């Protein structure tokens, strides 16, 4: 009897792992959402781990993935080739043999398999970049590392290897398309991925900021959804909701994801300050002996914090986006003591795992699990009065059945709401994006206009709120 029970639970465990590994995402024609193969709306809460495959070993990777699972992340974005064709992983295994893209190194991809499977075990998807864009951009001799032929072959290899895994393919790697040759290489890689996977995995393209994939690829049948990067060049990225308006005007309709917003703990306009001498400083004046930033004042525009990344997340979803990828400056580059950083950091990667912005993603997930993708639409007309397209813009969505209205108030500003958009009388509540708590504030009638004033001081840094208006149950 005992052995039968053990066998039963072993089979259940195996079946659950098979289900996790074989989970598939789909985008239906003229649909603005991503769905699972079971027809359920998929909520993309991503994390940025570009250097995962090159910098972390197995133990570190599992530690990282477990942390992200606990926080409710659903997608891990990472790059297979972050450097050149000689890139190796933490075990010294190069991605290609002899730097030849037609000779994938089995040892390297066995490690990729391991990470993909560990991610799947935790119910998450991998958003894999086959390569960073530097391998598609021409070198000084006028040639790129990839040709159209080798890009297609590499794409077909990847597509076939991971066609039954929970993998989303993301081309681009922080680069816009500047030449016809670049376009043709990316298109060849996309077609290789499609052929290898028999169309089993979604594909998108990751541009620089503030740019969208639709500028080049919207009409390509292989582009499953659009991707924007709102980027790191300013606070209050109004381009997010502006792109949301643009996507509503495109044909065919496709979902969109903000795959690189401002990263928590990264300096605003960081690339302006790489040359220390230009600002009368030496490196050691800014960076401490431990390799971390010791003089934060060197960066005059400050750093992006939890409020900034949280606001960009809510602006994304309240503007029609179906996905948002959080990022932390130390984690995307997996910065460790004694290693080289790409952008100066405030912490090492493992010390950044529990930063407040990452924790806030749990609350984003909570709200949009309660009000799933596809169950609502944008309706700015519920806002009564002026609502300018600036950094104080209020965003509003209404349930498709008018059973609820949600408004995001990024500065804790008061708002007057047209309650006739609510199907029945109901209740009003405040959702706290910092804590994930919901506090009922009273009842409402589904007629006329009513003023709502959030807790705290309007305009105070970090005082954002979501107003929930919910019709009473029948």
From TrEMBL:
Residues annotated as domain Putative collagen-binding: 379-470
InterPro entries per the UniProt record, alphabetical: Apiosidase-like_cat_dom (IPR025277), Collagen-bd_put (IPR024749), GH (IPR017853)
SUPFAM superfamilies, sorted: (Trans)glycosidases
Keyword terms, alphabetized: Signal
Domain Apiosidase-like catalytic: start-end pairs: 33-373
Residues making up the signal peptide according to the UniProt record: 1-20
PANTHER family, sorted: DUF4038 DOMAIN-CONTAINING PROTEIN (PTHR37836:SF2), LMO1036 PROTEIN (PTHR37836)
Name of the protein described by the UniProt record: DUF4038 domain-containing protein
């Amino acid at each position: 009897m005992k052995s039968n029970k053990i066998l039963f639970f072993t089979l259940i465990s195996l079946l659950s792992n098979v289900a996790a590994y074989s989970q598939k995402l789909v985008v239906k024609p003229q649909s603005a959402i991503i769905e699972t193969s079971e027809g359920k709306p998929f909520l993309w809460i991503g994390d940025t781990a570009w250097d995962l495959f090159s910098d972390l070993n197995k133990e570190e990777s599992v530690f990282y993935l477990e942390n992200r699972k606990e926080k409710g992340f659903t997608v891990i974005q990472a790059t297979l080739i972050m450097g050149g064709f000689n890139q190796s992983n933490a075990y010294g295994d190069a991605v290609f043999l002899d730097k030849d893209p037609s000779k994938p190194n089995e040892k390297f991809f066995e490690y990729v398999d391991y990470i993909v499977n560990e991610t799947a075990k935790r119910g998450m998807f991998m958003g894999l970049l086959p390569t960073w864009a530097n391998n598609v951009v021409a070198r000084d001799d006028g040639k790129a590392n990839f040709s159209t032929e080798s890009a297609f072959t590499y794409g077909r290899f990847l597509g076939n290897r991971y066609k039954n895994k929970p993998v989303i393919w993301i081309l681009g790697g922080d680069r816009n398309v500047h030449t016809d040759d670049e376009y043709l290489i990316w298109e060849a890689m996309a077609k290789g991925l499609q052929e290898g996977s028999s169309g089993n995995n979604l594909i998108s393209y990751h541009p620089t900021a503030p740019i969208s994939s639709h500028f080049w690829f919207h009409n390509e049948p292989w582009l499953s959804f659009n991707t924007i990067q709102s980027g790191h060049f300013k606070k209050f990225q109004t381009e997010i909701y502006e792109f949301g308006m643009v996507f509503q005007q495109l044909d065919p309709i496709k979902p969109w994801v903000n795959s690189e917003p401002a990263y928590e703990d990264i300096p605003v306009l960081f690339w302006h300050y790489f040359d220390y001498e230009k600002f009368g400083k030496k490196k050691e004046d800014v960076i401490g002996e431990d390799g971390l930033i010791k003089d934060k004042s060197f960066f005059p525009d400050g750093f992006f914090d939890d409020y900034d990344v949280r606001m960009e997340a809510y602006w994304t979803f309240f503007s029609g986006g179906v996905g948002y990828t959080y990022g932390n400056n130390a984690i995307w580059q997996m910065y460790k003591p004694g290693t080289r950083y790409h952008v100066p950091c405030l912490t090492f990667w493992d010390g950044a795992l529990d930063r407040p912005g990452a924790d806030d993603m749990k609350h984003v997930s909570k709200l949009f699990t309660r009000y799933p993708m596809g169950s609502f639409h944008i309706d700015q007309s519920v806002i009564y009065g002026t609502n300018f397209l600036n950094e104080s813009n209020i965003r509003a969505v209404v349930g498709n059945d008018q059973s609820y209205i949600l408004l995001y108030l990024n500065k804790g500003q008061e708002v007057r709401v047209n309650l006739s958009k609510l199907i029945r009388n109901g209740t009003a509540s405040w959702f706290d994006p910092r804590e994930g708590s919901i506090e009922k504030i009273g009842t409402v009638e589904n007629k006329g206009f009513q003023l709502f004033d959030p807790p705290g001081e309007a305009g105070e840094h970090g005082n954002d709120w979501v107003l929930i208006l919910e019709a009473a149950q029948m």
